[in-house]
Hints:
Blueprint: E1 2-8, H1 12-23, E2 28-31, E3 47-50, H2 61-78, E4 83-84, E5 88-93, H3 97-108, E6 114-117, H4 118-124, E7 134-139, E8 143-146, H5 147-160, E9 164-166, E10 171-177, E11 180-185, E12 189-197, H6 203-208, E13 217-228, H7 230-233, E14 240-244, E15 249-253, E16 261-265, E17 270-271, H8 286-298, E18 302-315, E19 322-325, E20 332-336, H9 346-359, H10 372-378
Parallel strand pairs: 1-2, 1-12, 2-9, 5-14, 12-20
Antiparallel strand pairs: 3-8, 4-8, 5-7, 6-7, 10-11, 11-12, 13-16, 13-17, 13-18, 14-15, 15-16, 19-20
Helix pairs in contact: 1-5, 1-9, 2-5, 2-9
Bound molecules: flavin-adenine dinucleotide.
Amino acid sequence: MNYDVIIIGAGSMGMAAGYYLSKSGKKTLLLDSFNPPHNKGSHHGGTRIIRYAYAEGEEYVPLILKAQELWRDLERASEKELLIQTGVLGVGKEQSDFIQNIITSANKYSLPLEVMDSSEVQRRWSGISLPNDSVGCFEPTSGVLKCEESIKAYQELAEVHGATIVTNSKVREMSVERDRVTIKTDEQTFYSEALVVSAGAGSRNLLAMLDLDLPLTPVRKTFAWFDANEKIYNHQSFPAFAFETSHGIYYGFPSIDGAGIKVGRHDGGEKINPDISMKEFGEVSEDKGDLVQFLKQHIPEIDQLKYGKTCMYTLTPDEKFIIDLHPKYSNVAIAAGFSGHGFKFSSAVGQALSHLIMSGKNDIDLSPFSINRFLDEEK
Length: 379
Ligand SMILES: Cc1cc2nc3c(=O)[nH]c(=O)nc-3n(C[C@H](O)[C@H](O)[C@H](O)COP(=O)(O)OP(=O)(O)OC[C@H]3O[C@@H](n4cnc5c(N)ncnc54)[C@H](O)[C@@H]3O)c2cc1C
């Protein structure tokens, strides 16, 4: 079967790309090992934080502001509420890169941001406890994305625009010869003129088939929901949060519709083979204890653990994304290595992938996310 574009991996980035490519009139096929949204990749768990004054560096801000605009477009097109504006509170030491990057990003792009000392944070949100030397950066316009709902919305709209989605079909082999792409699953062979590889933790193995060895490391991550005092922690009055503490970086979500506080740890995690199922939440002895020690110290009005889950990050060495064309094939676009902070960008990444496929360039600068930085390192 022949297509204009094949997308391998119909998850966060791939499904959005499928929408933009099919909307542009491209005959698009999306292939996935499972049936997205699903719980075997990086996109499950109900919610993802979206913030604009970016702690990871100001170079992300143009892309995230584009993403914000496109999330609102998706809400309008799908008639679904996907982005809840809870505000996001970043907490850390005043001189840390984490806090300084938030402030620099906000200043440079005139983003609303309230910077406050620890006593002001505790006065505004009685459910937070902080050491005296912490500061808080509250971004009122940021919030929470419904991740699986967003992927479903892109899926439905992509299908309306004529995209074909073949699920439960793992790609086993692929090759590119000029404008002839050949993709094989166990059951079928597909052909196209162009290719998008957006396969999350599976990207490294797939790209090796196209002579590209990218330093992508899948790691096991855990997150969990805890019963919480709803009067304090409900999403109408409590923000999503990211805390850089002396133990590590923790993030969490207010209780949305009584679901409880959801919390996870951003740094660390065991390296895994993405083709082998990972240990469930609780099978590693520290899973619960690590989150509980953070909550007891900083979000103290919580009660029992409800349940926990595991998910994957795919890390690059500098924890920045890869969004680029293949160095050898100008008809192959790659989006990989989202290092545990990519979901909020997926609307803009999907659009960028469609632009790369159609014209080789994007209106938002993608140079911070180029493949070259790893190829140069090897020289
Ligand atoms: C616990 C957790 C919390 C997070 N919190 C946040 C947050 O608050 N904010 C934020 O912005 N980001 C967050 N992230 C990160 C974000 O979710 C990821 O960066 C993003 O989902 C990655 O998207 P992806 O498209 O690369 O991967 P995925 O969404 O996993 O999609 C990849 C798809 O490729 C498919 N695939 C793989 N191999 C093959 C193959 N051989 N053939 C066919 N299909 C294949 C998979 O089945 C999958 O569907 C979090 C991640 C985790 C795990």
